[in-house]
Amino acid sequence: MPFFAVNYRYEAEQTRDREANKPAHREWLSAQVDAGTIRSVGPYTDGSGALLLVEATDTDAARALVAEDPHCLRGMVSEVTVREWKPVFGALS
Q: How far apart are CA 66 and CA 61, in angstroms?
């Protein structure tokens, strides 16, 4: 199944709201990792967003999956980009 690099972009003025929503967001992420649909995830260290490595049948399925993230449902992600990614070397290749 293909992999997708999903980038979230965050706005600084929503930091407090995202922090309050973080438990629900992380619970959802953990369930997706356990299910194998998200293979790895983490925030950018500058606070500008996050990267999710998603395994899905196609771009639309990857977008539909992340649309269920509590951060996305509550409008706390200002931009979502989804790009198919092909690992050549390493753990996911």
A: 9
Structure token digits, residue 29:
């992420």
Could you tell me if 30 and 23 are in contact, meaning their C-beta atoms sit under 8 angstroms apart?
no
Query: d(Cα 44, Cα 51) in Å, to the nearest integer?
Result: 7
Please give the model's pTM, rounded to 2 decimal places: 0.94
- Name the amino acid, one letter, at 33: V
In tens, the pLDDT along 5-43 reads 999 999 999 999 999 999 999 999 999 999 999 999 999
Q: Which residues span the domain enclosing 56?
A: 3-85
At residue 10, what is the residue type?
Answer: Y
CATH number of the domain that residue 20 is part of: 3.30.70.1060
